[in-house]
Write a structure and sequence with these properties.
Layout: H1 6-69, H2 86-101, H3 106-135, H4 139-227, H5 242-282, H6 285-300, H7 304-322, E1 328-330, H8 331-349, E2 353-359, E3 367-369, H9 374-385, E4 392-401, E5 404-411, H10 418-427, H11 439-452, E6 457-463, E7 467-475
Parallel strand pairs: 2-4
Antiparallel strand pairs: 1-3, 4-5, 5-7, 6-7
Length: 485
C-alpha cells in the first residue's frame, strides 16, 4: 500500500524551496513599497512647497502693490492679466499647507504650524489695507503697511517654507537611510534563508534520492539474479511508495516465473520421457526380429529383390526414426517414414493390408513432430486391420486449412463401440503403457498438446464394423534450416 507517493516526496522538495522564497519576496516587496510610498510623499511635499516658495511671495507682493498704488480694487483685480486676488492666494496657500500638514512629521510639522499662523496674520494685514483703501486718502499709510507688514510677512513665509523644505529633505534622507538599512537587513535575511533552504532542500533531496535509488539498485540486483536463472531471490523494499509496489509486483512475477519454469522443466522432462518411451517402443525387438526373419525368409525363397527392398525400407525407417536426435522433421520426411513402415508391414501382411497416402505436396515443407503418424498407422494395423481377419485398407491424408494442417489416418477395420471409444478417449490423457487406448496414440496426443498448446491435438471417430478415423491438427509452420535432415 502506497502511503507516501513519490510525487509527494518530489513536491515537498519544491515546496521547501518555493514557499520560503515567496515569503521572502513578499516581505521585501512590502518593505520596498512602504519606503517607496514614504519617499514619493516626501518628493511630492517638497515639490508642492517649492512651488509656493517660488511664486507665493512674488504674486502676493505684486498684487498688493497694484492695489495700493493703482485704481485696481479687490473686486476687479482678478480681471487683470498676471494678477491674483490676495485672498485667493492666501486661501490656496492655506489649503495646500493644510494638506502638507497631514503627512508632516517632527520639525516639518512645526514649521507648517508657523506658516499657518503667519498666513492668518497676513490675511489680517490685507484686511487692514483693504479697509484703508476703501476709506480713501491713506496712500502713505498704505505704503507703509505694505512695506512694513505685507513684504515682511511674505519674506517670513518664504523663509518658513524653505525651512519646511529643508526638514522634508532631511526626512527624505532619513527614509533613504532606513530603506538602505532595511534592504541590507533583507539581503542578510535572504542570504540566511537561502542557506537554510538550500541545506534543507539538499538534505531532503538526498533523502528522497536515497529512498528511491537504494531500492531501485536492490531491485536491479535481484533482477540480475533472476536473469541468471536464480528465481528464489526476492526484493525486500519497504519504502511505502511506488517503488515498493514495483518490488512487490516483481516478486509476484518472479514467483510466477519460478512456478512456470518448474512446470516447463517438468513438462520437458515428461516430453523427453514420452519420446524415449516412444523410441523404445518403435525399436522393439519383436518388430526387428520379425522384420529380419521376413528378410531371411525372402532370401531363402530366392526373392532377393524383395529382400533388398525390405532392407532399404528398414534402413530408411530407422534413419528417419533417429533423425540425429531432432524433435521436428518435415512432413515429407514423416511421409517417407510411414511409407517405409507400411512397406515392411505389407511384406508380412500383404494378404490383408492395403494402404494409400494422399498428402498434399504443398505442405511437404511444413514441420511436424517426429513419430506423429507412424504410431497411428501401427494402431490401425494391430487394432483395426488384423482383428478383421480379412483385407483391410489404411488411408493417410494431409492438407492445409488456413493456418492449420489437418492429417488423418483412417482404416476400415473392426472399429469400436461407443463404450470402447469413450474409454480410448479418456485414456488419451494418460501416457501410460497400460492405458486402454494403447501407449502410442496417447503419447502422440500429449506430445502435440505439450508442443503446440491445448488448441491442437487429435480426435477419434469410430463405429463397429466401419473402422476408425484419427484426425490430427497442428499449426502450419515452415520447417527450419536446423531441422533439415
Amino acid at each position: 500500500m502506497v502511503k507516501v507517493p513519490l510525487k509527494y516526496k518530489l513536491v515537498s522538495i519544491s515546496l521547501v524551496i518555493i514557499i520560503p522564497m515567496i515569503l521572502l519576496s513578499v516581505y521585501q516587496s512590502l518593505i520596498l513599497m512602504r519606503f517607496t510610498d514614504a519617499y514619493d510623499q516626501n518628493i511630492r511635499n517638497i515639490t508642492a512647497a517649492n512651488d509656493y516658495n517660488l511664486n507665493f511671495k512674488e504674486e502676493m507682493d505684486e498684487s498688493m502693490y497694484k492695489l495700493v498704488v493703482s485704481s485696481i480694487t479687490f473686486d476687479t483685480i482678478g480681471e487683470r492679466d498676471g494678477l491674483t486676488n490676495p485672498y485667493t492666494l492666501i486661501e490656496n496657500a492655506r489649503e495646500g499647507f493644510t494638506s502638507l500638514y497631514d503627512t508632516a512629521e517632527g520639525e516639518s510639522k512645526s514649521w507648517l504650524e508657523r506658516l499657518m499662523t503667519n498666513l492668518d496674520l497676513l490675511e489680517k494685514n490685507v484686511d487692514k489695507i483693504r479697509d484703508s483703501i476703501q476709506e480713501g486718502g491713506n496712500y502713505d499709510e498704505n505704503i507703509y503697511m505694505l512695506e512694513s507688514n505685507i513684504y515682511q510677512l511674505t519674506d517670513l513665509l518664504q523663509e518658513e517654507i524653505q525651512y519646511y523644505i529643508y526638514y522634508e529633505s532631511a526626512n527624505m534622507e532619513r527614509v533613504r537611510q532606513e530603506l538602505d538599512d532595511q534592504v541590507g537587513g533583507s539581503i542578510t535575511v535572504g542570504i540566511l534563508a537561502l542557506i537554510l533552504v538550500s541545506t534543507v532542500a539538499i538534505g531532503l533531496n538526498l533523502w528522497v534520492t536515497h529512498s528511491v535509488t537504494k531500492p531501485v539498485r536492490q531491485l536491479a540486483g535481484v533482477a540480475d539474479q533472476v536473469a541468471k536463472g536464480n528465481f528464489s531471490v526476492r526484493a525486500d523494499c519497504r519504502t511505502q511508495d511506488e517503488v515498493q509496489l514495483l518490488a512487490e509486483s516483481f516478486n509476484h512475477m518472479t514467483e510466477d516465473l519460478e512456478s512456470l519454469v518448474e512446470r516447463i522443466q517438468q513438462e520437458q522432462q515428461n516430453l523427453k520421457n514420452m519420446e524415449l518411451k516412444l523410441l523404445q517402443a518403435q525399436i522393439n525387438p519383436h518388430f526387428l526380429y520379425n522384420t529380419l526373419d521376413t528378410i531371411i525368409w525372402l532370401i531363402e525363397g530366392g526373392k532377393n529383390q524383395e529382400a533388398m527392398d525390405m532392407v532399404v525400407a528398414l534402413s530408411e525407417f530407422f534413419r528417419i526414426l533417429l533423425s540425429k536426435g531432432r524433435d521436428f522433421i518435415s512432413i515429407r520426411e514423416e511421409e517417407r517414414h510411414i511409407q517405409s513402415y507400411l512397406k515392411i508391414q505389407q511384406f508380412r501382411y500383404g494378404d490383408i493390408l492395403e494402404y494409400e497416402i494422399r498428402i498434399d505436396p504443398d505442405i511437404y515443407d511444413c514441420r511436424i513432430l517426429k513419430m506423429t503418424l507412424q504410431p497411428l498407422v501401427e494402431n490401425s494395423i494391430y487394432h483395426g486391420i488384423k482383428p478383421k481377419r480379412g483385407m483391410g485398407k489404411i488411408l493417410v491424408q494431409g492438407l492445409r486449412q488456413g493456418d492449420k494442417i489437418r492429417l488423418t489416418v483412417a482404416d476400415d477395420g473392426v472399429g469400436m463401440s461407443q463404450e470402447e471409444l469413450n474409454r480410448v478417449k479418456k485414456g488419451l490423457y494418460k501416457a501410460d503403457d497400460e492405458n486402454d487406448s494403447g501407449f502410442g496414440i496417447a503419447n502422440v496426443f500429449q506430445r502435440i498438446r505439450l508442443n503446440y498448446g491445448d488448441a491442437y491435438g487429435l480426435w477419434l471417430d469410430s463405429a463397429p464394423g466401419e473402422g476408425t478415423r484419427v484426425t490430427i491438427e497442428i499449426p502450419a509452420q515452415e520447417v527450419r534450416r536446423s531441422e533439415v535432415l
